[in-house]
Amino acid sequence: MMADTGxxxxxxxxxxxxxxxxxxxxxxxxxxxxxxxxxxxxxxxxYANVASAGFVIAQGxxxxxxxxxxxxxxxxxxxVCGSNIYWRSTESPDxxxxxxxxxxxxxxxxxxxxxxxxTKPAWLPSLKPAR
Length: 131
Description:
Elements: E1 7-11, E2 18-22, E3 27-31, H1 34-40, E4 45-51, E5 55-59, E6 64-68, E7 73-78, E8 84-89, E9 95-99, E10 113-115
Parallel strand pairs: 3-10
Antiparallel strand pairs: 1-2, 2-5, 3-4, 4-9, 6-7, 7-8, 8-9
């Protein structure tokens, strides 16, 4: 867990959405599920898991579109530029996972988890083992 206090800050590609998320980060992860791969157009979706109570859309709430990608999964993105902002589960409403690529400045904490490694593309490298 990232023990710092304060906030993470992020925005979408077009700048229409700006958000903040209160620290701490409970964990950061790379998710290799096929839904994350398709949503991000990449080998993984990378997220910082934070408390949903500390997540605030500071600008552009009306630009957020949510896609119900599964029975409990909701993926929030910018309706203008398509930037992926967050993933949340209706089964865990106390947490939200913000996308690492939207953070300003870039995320400086560790990425401790790899999820759904059974669908991880063979062309991606693995995380270094923890010491």
